[in-house]
Specification:
The structure is a single chain. The chain is α+β, with helices and mostly antiparallel strands and 337 residues long. The chain folds into two domains: 170 residues; 143 residues, Sulfite Oxidase, Chain A, domain 2 (Alpha-Beta Complex). It is 38% helix and 18% strand. The strands form three sheets. Strands 3, 6, 7, 10, 11 and 12 form a six-stranded mixed β-sheet that branches. A five-stranded mixed β-sheet has the order 5-4-13-8-9. A two-stranded antiparallel ribbon has the order 1-2. A hairpin with a 4-residue loop joins strand 8 and strand 9. Helix 1 packs antiparallel against helix 2, helix 1 runs antiparallel to helix 4 and helix 2 crosses helix 5. The chain starts with 8 loop residues before the first helix and ends in a 13-residue tail after the last strand.
């Protein structure tokens, strides 16, 4: 389809200036939540991303005009356009259920990395070419255009989802977070992933201790506490989820938070997360999965299971659990390392 020369590229740029950060924000949000919403954040993210795709022909026309005039900034626009298309392409590839790699990186790593680089590049680009919001941009015509683009994007998202179901692709059964099911009730084949630079720890069970409010506990001591079997979904930010039967001790049987505001959990690697104090009854220190001891890759000797929270909260190789007076939210949304 031949795209007519845009009469006002400013409005296209203005729309993309709003959509790109929104696409990144909704993507990160969908990659953070662990409980279902009435409208799945992954669906909102997909619709916003497809709205960017709807506008890409007009943006490409703007880029071609700039290249024809040999503007130096047009090269930045071209790279930005390619990054956005790469991000959209890998997002659609992930939706189909593709689990392979693109070179050394997973599809999701390329998708997230491309989006973040594109956002930075968009900021640099728009800093050198500011797009001003005019009073006329808030008028009826803009509203109708926005509604039209939103309707086309929503229809495109529904078509993609319907196509996945029709073709029987695994993407049609994605969780509300956008994650694909992997090896549920088969812990032997459940993927092993760690946060960024964390390496799998091989810990001597006899020497291991977990300090709970400063008091060391061995594996044998933990086994003396009442054990629960719970079925919970580990939903990893690597875009897979796995439902397993975990066995361990609920934390309120091990720890009294008193008037403290949070619970600090630390791994043998130094990795840690801080949980709200009221989560104590919905957290387990588990030692088994599927009736067998945890493997090293899955957190042996003990890890946290926190139903309703994403995988980066499920701290592995736990060595310390402490009540804390620091609010749980006083930490980065995602761990830095």
């Amino acid at each position: 389809m031949k795209v007519p020369k845009p009469k006002n590229g400013r409005r296209t740029n203005l729309a993309l200036l709003a959509l790109l950060p929104l696409a990144v924000f909704t993507g990160l949000f969908a990659n953070t939540i662990g409980t279902a919403w009435s409208i799945p954040p992954a669906a909102v993210h997909g619709t916003v991303a497809l709205a960017v795709l709807v506008l890409s022909p007009w943006k490409s026309a703007i880029v071609r005009r700039g290249l024809a005039k040999r503007r130096k900034s047009s090269v930045v626009s071209l790279v930005l356009l390619l990054l956005v298309l790469t991000t959209l392409g890998t997002g659609l590839l992930h939706a189909t259920g593709f689990h392979g790699k693109l070179g050394p990186l997973t599809v999701m790593q390329v998708h997230i990395g491309g989006a973040l680089i594109a956002l930075v590049l968009a900021y640099v680009h728009y800093r050198s070419h500011p797009v001003r919001l005019h009073k006329v941009d808030l008028g009826r015509r803009t509203f109708l255009r926005t509604t039209g683009v939103s309707a086309v994007a929503a229809a495109a998202w529904l078509s993609v989802e319907g196509g996945l179901d029709l073709l029987g692709l695994s993407g049609g059964e994605r969780r509300f977070t956008g994650s694909h099911e992997r090896s549920s009730f088969d812990p032997t084949h459940m993927p092993v992933t760690s946060w960024l630079d964390d390496k799998v720890q091989h810990i001597d069970a006899a020497a291991w201790r977990v300090a709970i409010a400063g008091r060391p506990h061995s594996l044998e001591e933990l086994s003396l506490h009442p054990q629960d079997d719970l079925t919970a979904v580990l939903d990893c930010t690597s875009a897979w989820y796995s439902e397993q039967v975990w066995t361990g001790v609920r934390l309120d049987r091990l720890l009294d938070v008193g008037d403290h505001r949070s619970i600090s959990v630390t791994s043998a690697t130094g990795y840690g997360r801080r949980f709200p104090a009221h989560d104590l009854k919905n957290m387990w220190l588990v030692t088994h999965v599927g009736g067998e001891p945890l493997s090293a890759g899955h957190g042996f000797p003990a890890r946290i299971v926190a139903p309703g929270r994403r995988g980066f909260w499920w701290v592995k190789w736990v060595v310390a659990i402490d009540p804390s007076s620091v609010p749980w939210w006083l930490q980065l949304p995602f761990p830095a390392t």
